[in-house]
Design brief:
Helix content: under 10%
Number of helices: 2
Strand order of the largest sheet: 3-4-5-6
Structural class: mainly beta
Largest sheet: 4 strands, antiparallel
Low-confidence stretches: none
Length: 238
């Protein structure tokens, strides 16, 4: 979304008068590995619903910006990859988890514009020998689901760097790697993430024919054809 020269990524409802938005940073220089100092060091903002007035959240300020884009030039051909992220996640009790690749700290933001640190990424960006991108995939009052990967992409094989999934228990402060499984799918290749996803109908029909579905998902798949629309799988965090 474009607004007065701004390119906005995540946009959500903040309160009756405002939207809460995030402005990503894309650096098109050839040096893809270093942190980049730019003017938009305060990427979170409130946008008035009625007037479109932009109020930058100066409470959240980065020391520098890390580009969510890397690109490669081969002759006359330019290739680019964007690393997408959920920078704002709403929580109950009028709270929001806010985070970006350029921040060493993950915060909770209240509707009173108060920031509370809830998780610190280590090592810091300045201390990393290789640039590691860490993002929040989903969150609840008890859990933080994180994903980290090197800021690299193999343009020849069209494969990103390996991703590691981390689960943070906010009460005990423990951090563990995790793998999610769907109890109604007996196939290790079926991807499950801690967020709402769209499952391809053709894939579900194939799993049904292979006898790898059970429960409610099996009942849904029995009514599908390969050409049907994707099935929304809703994830509820407790």
């Amino acid at each position: 979304m474009m607004l007065r020269g701004l390119t906005l990524g995540t946009i959500i409802d903040y309160d009756k008068e405002n939207l809460l938005a995030y402005e990503p940073y894309w650096n098109f220089s050839r040096n893809n590995k270093k942190e980049d100092k730019k003017k938009n060091l305060t990427p979170f903002m409130l946008i008035a619903k009625q007037t479109g007035r932009v109020d930058t959240l100066k409470e959240f300020k980065n020391k520098y910006r890390v580009s969510s884009l890397i690109w490669q030039q081969s002759g006359k051909r330019n290739m680019a990859v964007f690393f997408a992220a959920k920078n704002i996640i709403p929580l109950p009790n009028d709270l929001f988890v806010v985070d970006n690749f350029s921040s060493d700290t993950i915060f909770e933001l209240s509707r009173d514009r108060e920031l509370t640190p809830i998780c610190v990424k280590t090592p810091s960006l300045k201390e990393m020998s290789e640039m590691m991108l860490t993002q929040v995939i989903n969150a609840s009052a008890k859990w933080l689901f994180l994903q980290k990967q090197l800021r690299e992409f193999d343009f020849e094989s069209q494969k990103p760097a390996k991703q590691t999934s981390l689960l943070v228990d906010r009460s005990t402060k423990s951090i563990n790697e995790y793998t999610l499984r769907n109890r109604e799918v007996s196939d290790d290749d079926f991807k499950v993430v801690p967020n709402n996803i769209l499952a391809n109908s053709g894939d579900l029909v194939e799993l049904l024919e292979d006898g790898k579905l059970s429960g409610k998902l099996k009942e849904i798949a029995e009514k599908l054809t390969e050409d049907d629309n994707p099935v929304l799988m809703k994830v509820t965090l407790k």
